[in-house]
Amino acid sequence: MGEFRDIWVYLSTSPLLHLTLTLAAFVFASMVYRKLHMNPLLNPVLLSVIAIVLVLKGTGTDYDTFFEGAQFVHFLLGPATVALAVPLYRQFDRVRKSALAILLSIACGSLTSALTAVSIAWMLDARVVSIVSLAPKSVTAPVAMGISEQLGGLPSLTAVIVILTGVIGAMLGPLILNVLNIRDWAARGLAIGTASHGIGTARALQVNEVAGAFSGLAMGLNALATAILLPVIWNFLF
Amino acid sequence: MLEYLTLILSCQLAGEFLVSALDVPFPGPVAGMILLFVFLSVRGGVPEDLGNVAGALLNNLSLLFVPAGVGVMVHFELLGADALPISVALVVSTLLTIAVTALVMVTLNRLNTRNTGDRG
Question: How far A234 CA lies from chain B's nearest CA (Å)?
C-alpha cells in the first residue's frame, strides 16, 4: 500500500498523468459523440472538459498541475492553425469566386457579434467591465484578449467568454443553420468560423472539408476585421 | 513527415516574428497560415506528406481546445454576478451572428450567380 502511494505521488507530479487524462477524456468523449451520430449538442470539447473538471475536483488537483501535462496538447493549437492553409489552398478556387461576398459577410458577422452581445448585456444590467469584455467574443482568444485590453475590458474574462462562445457556436450553430435551411457548405462554414473561431472550425472540419476551409478562413479574417473595426466604432460610440 | 512538421513550425515562428516586429494586433499562427498558403501557391500543390501532417493536426483540432476549456471551468467565477446576463448575451448574440453571416453570404452569392447568368 505504501509502495502504491509512492508510485502515485511520483506520477501525479509528472506531466504524463495529466497528459494521459486529457487524451483519455477526449477519446471517451469522441466515442460518445460518434456513437450518437456526431450530434452537435454532444460537443466533444465540452464533454471532455466536464469529465476532466470532475476528476480534478475529485482528486483536489489544481489547474497549474493539470496544465503541466496538458500544455503539450495546448501547444499544438499554433501548428494546427498554420495547417489550416492546406484545406484553404484546396478550396481556393471557390474562395476566389466569391471573395467580395466573403469579405462582406464576415464584416456583417463581426459587427453583429459585437453590437448584439454588448447591447443584450447592457439591457440586462451587466457591469461595464463585463460588457466591454464581451465585445470581441467571437474572435480567436489571443487577439480577443488584446482587443479587450485596448477597450478597457478584462482580458482573462474575455478568454473565458471566447471559449464559451466557441462551444456555444459549435453546439447550436448547426441547429440554427438547419432552421434557416442553409445548405451551402461554404456559407455554413463561413458563419460558424466568424461566430465561433477555432472551436467552431474544429466541428466544421469534421463534418465537411469545404465548410472546414471556409470556417478557418473566416476565423482569420474575422480576427483582422474585428481588430480594425471594433476600436474605431467603439471610440465613435462611447 | 518530419520535414513538413518543421515547415509548419517554421511558418508559425516566422508568423510570430512578423506580427511582433510589425506590432500588429494579429495572431502569429494565423500569419503563419498565410505564409504556408503562399508556400503552397508558389509550389503549386500540396505535397502528400504535408497533407498527412496537416490532416493529423486538423482531424483532432477539438482535442487541442480541451486544456483551455478546463481553464474556463476553473476561472468561471470571473463571470461573477454577471453570469446570467453574459450567458444570455453569448447564446443570443452567437446565434444571431451565425444567422446574419450565413444569410448575407447566401444572398450575395445568389445575386452574383444571377448577374453572371445574365451576362452568359
Answer: 16
